[in-house]
């Protein structure tokens, strides 16, 4: 197996963790919304749930960063492989480089999206509990 493939083999597992974390984040968000609808709910409980949601979203951001790092590692290794073995077919490594590059770009966009989402969602919930 080529060295550039090794970091990319971790991506499906990380993707499953991202899906699981997203599900937990959605469930926690729904719990917070339900608590906010209840007039008798203690605000300290809501603040704890908001803190919990913040940690989940922060974990998702870290997972996206890990996807970017593994993708970049695969990309760099593929570039070095391409430079050292130009006698092989050039199309396959070029397509690999393009594919991994777009994966890195998408991951960077998701990192920006997630960090903004964390801030917006936290502010939204905190604004709803302020009198």
Describe, in short, the structure shown.
The protein has helices at 5-8, 11-37, 43-84, 91-129.
Main sheet overview: none
Poorly predicted ranges: none
Order of helices and strands: HHHH
The helix content is over 70%
Integer-rounded radius of gyration = 20 Å
Structure description:
The chain has 131 residues and is mostly helical. Helix content is 85%, strand content 0%. The protein contains 4 helices and no strands. Helix 2 (11-37) packs antiparallel against helix 3 and helix 3 (43-84) runs antiparallel to helix 4 (91-129). It is elongated and about 70 Å long.
Which short descriptors sum up this protein?
85% helix, elongated, 131 residues
List the helices and strands and how they pair.
Layout: H1 5-8, H2 11-37, H3 43-84, H4 91-129
Helix pairs in contact: 2-3, 3-4
């Amino acid at each position: 197996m080529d060295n550039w493939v090794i970091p990319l083999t971790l991506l499906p597992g990380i993707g499953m963790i991202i899906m699981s974390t997203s599900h937990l984040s959605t469930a926690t968000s729904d719990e917070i919304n339900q608590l906010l609808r209840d007039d008798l709910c203690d605000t300290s409980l809501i603040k704890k749930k908001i803190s919990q949601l913040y940690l989940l979203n922060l974990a998702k951001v870290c997972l996206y960063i890990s996807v970017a790092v593994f993708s970049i590692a695969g990309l760099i290794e593929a570039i070095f492989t391409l430079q050292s073995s130009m006698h092989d077919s050039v199309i396959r490594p070029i397509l690999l480089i393009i594919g991994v590059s777009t994966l890195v770009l998408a991951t960077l966009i998701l990192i920006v999206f997630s960090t903004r989402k964390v801030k917006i969602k936290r502010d939204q919930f905190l604004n709803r509990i302020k009198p």
